What we know:
- The protein contains 17 helices and 20 strands.
- By secondary structure, it is an alpha+beta fold.
- Helix 1 (5-15) runs antiparallel to helix 3, helix 8 packs across helix 10 (287-303) and helix 9 (256-266) packs across helix 12.
Amino acid sequence: MTPDWGLIERQLRSLLPPRGVVAARQELLAYDCDGLTLTRHQPRLVVLPETTEQVVAVVRCCAQLNVPFIARGSGTGLSGGALAEQDAVVIATSRMRRVLNLDLENQRVTVQPGVINSWVTRAVAGEGFYYAPDPSSQVACSIGGNVAENSGGVHCLKYGVTSNHVLELEVVLPDGTVTTLGGGLPEMPGLDLRGVFIGSEGTLGIATAITLRLLRAPETVAVLLADFPSMEAAGEAVRRVTGAGVLPAGMEMMDSLCIQAVDDYFGVDEYPRDAAAVLLIELDGHALEVKDSVELASRLCLEAGAGGVRQAWTEEARTRLWKGRKSAITALGRQYPSYYLQDGVVPRTALPGVLAAIEQLSGEHGLPVANVFHAGDGNLHPLILYRAGDPGVNERVKALGGEILRLCIEAGGSISGEHGVGSDKRCYMDWMFSPDDLASMQLVRRAFDPDGLANPGKIFPTPKSCGESLGRLVELKVRGVELPADALVF
Ligand SMILES: Cc1cc2nc3c(=O)[nH]c(=O)nc-3n(C[C@H](O)[C@H](O)[C@H](O)COP(=O)(O)OP(=O)(O)OC[C@H]3O[C@@H](n4cnc5c(N)ncnc54)[C@H](O)[C@@H]3O)c2cc1C
């Protein structure tokens, strides 16, 4: 039965404070995509709850009327996770931005999901603490989005990704029940449902309060910037530094396209314009340990072919070195109006070969590809640069993105390191997982969301989005495997 959207809007308005429902077409434009601008679709309604109780009321209303809902944080996701592909209610957490509890003695903080990542560190830095996961989008992305995507960042090489820093989650399940996953302690007995929820991309419910682990700020931090005549030499330096047992807090690589864009935009003197690659290495810990690691890493970079190594020891100098890396995507955006940012992982040792193969594919497809990525953990971020509106360009961009992911899998890697699968990469899931693997994941999802109302159609291939999985899904249905209701949507 077609939902009565007039009735749904009236009901939602009655549940939320004034201006808590967005229904005007021009205002909904702001929600028609996330950071993946290649695909757009306007949601029917957006709601802006402020409390867990309001989220519960909205989710219950959706469950009663059998209407799908989609959680949305800041909309910086790069895999179309917050995209409303079908008529749905988007539940945006941008008014849920309160710190609920700060417990410095036990090194933890509880926040609402709309709190921006960098605000957490800002709130505790004065006391000598910080929150380690730091996506490059950290000034904009929300903690709820980070949990849903299990986001990584520069510091995840040494400190781990979001799942290593979330202790407890308050979650509104798709029937409106509120539950707690995990607990205030690092390890809880029983099944790790907190771990199941983290990275589930909004398909299991909505996180409404999140308890994060805080770390003590390190005594000393130094950053090195080494420039190289080739990407291969920079890849070799990564191999030598990590092989020598140095564990940097972060290790990031940029190619010449990025270096030149950053130079054109910001004029960052520290990035030699003619370098083929730069490597940024952050080392932290006790002063003596950092000093030794800086000397060793500098020597290994030079031995791998670096033209020079700059060192930064003060906060101001470190910020200057990081500035080019942190604003590389913005700088590229000034020259190329549109980009499609891929996210694949390969074993570190495979980096040089895969980067060379990406360069070849870029030439074959006639689309420039810039590389700026977390080299220490082999997490590639090729940026395919294009002009939206050029005839057939969307298809060409998608085709090149798919070929890059195929390369990653062939090199022993994966189709996503940290940006999630969303709508963008669900059709590649069966390159990595067998139909039985995917059905098992769907069974877990069904336990949370039997009616398939929470962010339907994301992560998993469906007959509608990826026709080839139809036969297998029908076979599973015939075998009596209970899939969530949306798994067979056409
Ligand atoms: C320039 C740029 C750089 C980036 N760099 C990085 C990086 O270094 N590392 C990295 O990991 N990512 C990076 N990203 C990707 C993105 O910022 C992250 O995926 C981020 O976690 C998304 O957060 P968000 O608040 O914008 O979520 P959204 O885009 O709004 O949503 C993302 C997903 O989370 C779900 N969701 C949101 N809130 C909730 C909630 N409360 N409960 C349940 N589900 C929810 C949504 O349904 C959706 O599936 C980058 C993006 C950009 C644009």
